Amino acid sequence: MTDHTPGSGDQPEEPTPRPESSSAGTGDTSPAGVPSQQPHAQRPDPENPYARPPEGQPAYAAQPSQDQQSYAAQGAQPHATQQQPWGHTAVLPQQSSGRRGGLVAGVAALALVCGLVGGGVGGYVGYQFGGDRAPSVSSLDQQRPARSVSTAPQGSVQQVADKVLPSVVQLQLVTARGAGEGSGIVISDDGYILTNNHVVDSGGAGSRLTAMFHDGRTAKVRVVGTDPKSDLAVVKADITGVTPAELGRSDDLPVGAPVVAIGSPFGLSGTVTSGIISAKDRPVRAGGENGSEDTVLNALQTDAAINPGNSGGPLVDMDGNVVGINSAIYSPGNSQSQAGSVGLGFAIPIDQAWRIATELKDHGSATQTTLGVLIGVGDQPGALVRNVVPGGPAEQAGVREGDLITKVDDRLIQDPDSLVAAVRSHAPGDRVTITLSGVGGERTVDATLVGQR
């Protein structure tokens, strides 16, 4: 699998080159890596500390070199030109007679003696007048408070963590091939948990799935239903009396809104990070084998730190309501054994996850929204219609082979993945307006989307 997701059972995803033709689109392109620079200092001659640097060359001149690891942080900036010791370039005088040299030495000795005497007199006077001073106060002698006085203000990360942590679990999958961890969200007090499909998938016969809750309890877990196309799954833990999370909404979530991510990155359960919503309606791939089109998601992008093991955990707003399911991270390079956060994390919007989770919990499977077209890449921005499914929503709306889909409602369609993400963000039965560019110019049609399993 070449795509990276933050579930620790498999590697975090990388973007996959777009296929020439597909029924559900291809992945988006991620930014290129940025090489770092590390300065190397040119030091003065230790045998002659007062020597001037060569003409035109500053002391401690930085000489940066290229670091081959992509997307690394920029190195420290080189120091500015520094002066020689004592604040100036010293020139030692040449003595012409021993008598003069002795005079200089005598003055130096006199200055040294005066310094010693001055220090001694000052110390004596300070000792005489400090005899009646008050005793010193030490922090180590003070009594500690009964509890921390830090109270969580309304809307703070601390308050959000206090509310949401009891509803987040660590999922541990043990298989014949090894073990891994992920995260999950409690959605009922009798043990139903929402997570990513790739967290619980690939277990096979003899695998064992366990949930560890915030209060320290553990329980065996069975899979209720999975949906690889949306990268979602519902599992059931053999436990009662747990705290379900409160689900919010993502359709009106503004870009720049503060959010908090909670999960078990690298097995560290109950980890809290914060950031903002960096972008919405981002077509990304997550959780599929070989970056298949079945895993194109209409994702929320966030700069809150998301790492392997965060998969399936919640992305919540500052009221503590779940607005997304953390699912993928961008991983620069392809030589890393296990990548970490570079500030590009992606979550499944809760509006879509809510519908899928309900169907998985009730029926064990979920329907996917479809328009009924096979699409590919054209020579202009948009999704080129290669084929129209007979009797499908597109054919009934008047979409023809060769049309270029450029909009779904007010959302611009740049490529096939954009169309897949836009369609799957809707529920079956939703009516959408599609803007087409074809032989007869631009036109719009209305289509009613349908669901298929």
Automatic annotation (TrEMBL):
The keyword Cytoplasm does not apply. Belongs to the peptidase S1C family. SUPFAM superfamilies: PDZ domain-like, Trypsin-like serine proteases. Its EC number is 3.4.21.-. One of its GO terms (molecular function) is serine-type endopeptidase activity. Keywords: Hydrolase, Membrane, Protease, Transmembrane, Transmembrane helix. It comes from the Bacteria. It comes from Saccharopolyspora hordei. One of its GO terms (biological process) is proteolysis. Residues 1-87, 134-155 are annotated as: Disordered. InterPro entries: Chloro_Bact_Ser_Proteases, PDZ, PDZ_6, PDZ_sf, Peptidase_S1_PA, Peptidase_S1_PA_chymotrypsin, Peptidase_S1C. It is an enzyme of class 3 (hydrolase). PANTHER family: PEPTIDASE S12, PROTEASE DO-LIKE 8, CHLOROPLASTIC. Residues 24-40, 63-72 have a biased composition (Polar residues). The chain crosses the membrane at residues 103-127. Residues 355-415 form the PDZ domain. Gene3D superfamilies: 2.30.42.10, Trypsin-like serine proteases (2.40.10.10). This is Putative serine protease PepD. The lineage of its organism: Bacteria, Bacillati, Actinomycetota, Actinomycetes, Pseudonocardiales.
